[in-house]
């Protein structure tokens, strides 16, 4: 069709056969429609990180032109979160090819990255390049609160009942009428979806036993999924249970990142309807 919202004055449901207008809506002149927003460049703090001005193309997509980074950070990622400065309570963002491997070096490349899962630019305060191992901020840009950018594809508020849910080959009810888990191996990745009758301040967890052939919490590898009531997003974190005690930074029920490992879980989607929370990772 090739038209934009500014090119039209009205939208109607029209019967051409009987030339009858069934209903219409008028478009105000000079309407201010959402559009991409240009932000400053990355702050230049470490490892040669710099860029040209960064653009927010839509509610989930950043365009980073002329990106430079020496690639020397041992555990660096695109990182988003909340607060007045980048901090450890952030979320990894896949790189331009959708990978969560530590960032390689960039020599003046133009790239696009997309926020994971249901996360949008309205949920975060900054975008940074952050080293998880050393908790070091290489550079960041702040996200204004008055953004008015287009919704991302599939991110409009209107949903339909025709969107198919993933088909899983495995399903198990862990707690009757309380917790159900479905999973499917897709190549080298494992997709898991948890369904739980939980409140917003509760969590769900599922993982690999610490012993072969029987359930055992000690030495188990667990994913904890929950709804972050502060950031208003669904989250999931890797945990390793070395002992049945509070994490002391070395042993106990510890997030992987606190004991020098990586949080390799990506939240694909999350929803809460009729008292049931579902989180797909």
UniProtKB/TrEMBL annotation:
Domain DM13: 1-28, 40-144
InterPro entries reported in the protein's UniProt record: DM13_domain (IPR019545), DOH_DOMON (IPR045266), DOMON_domain (IPR005018), Spindle_Org/Thrombomodulin (IPR052126)
Alphabetized CDD domains for the sequence: DOMON_DOH
Keywords of the record: Repeat
Protein name stated in the entry: GH17978
Domain DOMON, chain residue ranges per copy: 177-281
Pfam families: DM13 (PF10517), DOMON (PF03351)
Organism of derivation: Drosophila grimshawi
């Amino acid at each position: 069709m090739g038209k934009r919202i500014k090119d039209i004055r009205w939208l109607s449901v029209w019967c051409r056969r009987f030339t009858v207008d069934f209903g219409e809506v008028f478009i105000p002149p000079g309407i201010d429609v959402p559009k991409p927003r240009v932000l400053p460049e990355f702050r230049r703090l470490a490892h040669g990180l710099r860029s040209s001005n960064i653009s927010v193309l839509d509610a989930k997509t950043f365009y980073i032109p002329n990106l430079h980074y020496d690639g020397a950070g041992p555990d660096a990622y695109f990182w988003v979160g909340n607060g007045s400065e980048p901090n450890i309570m952030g979320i990894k963002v896949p790189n331009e090819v959708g990978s969560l491997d530590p960032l390689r070096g960039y020599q003046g490349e133009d790239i696009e990255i997309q926020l994971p899962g249901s996360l949008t630019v309205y949920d975060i305060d900054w975008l940074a390049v952050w080293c998880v191992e050393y908790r070091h901020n290489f550079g960041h840009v702040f996200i204004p609160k008055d953004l008015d950018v287009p919704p991302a594809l599939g991110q409009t508020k209107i949903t339909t009942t025709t969107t198919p849910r993933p088909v899983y080959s495995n399903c198990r009810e862990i707690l009757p009428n309380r917790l159900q888990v479905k999973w499917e191996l897709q190549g080298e990745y494992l997709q898991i979806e948890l369904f739980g009758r939980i409140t917003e301040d509760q969590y769900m967890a599922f993982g690999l036993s610490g012993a072969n052939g029987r359930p055992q919490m000690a030495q188990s590898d667990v994913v904890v999924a929950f709804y972050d009531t502060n950031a208003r997003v669904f989250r999931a974190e890797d945990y390793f249970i070395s002992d049945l005690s509070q994490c002391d930074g070395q042993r106990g029920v510890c997030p992987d990142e606190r004991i020098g490992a990586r949080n390799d879980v990506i939240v694909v989607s999350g929803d809460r309807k009729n008292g049931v929370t579902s989180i797909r990772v």
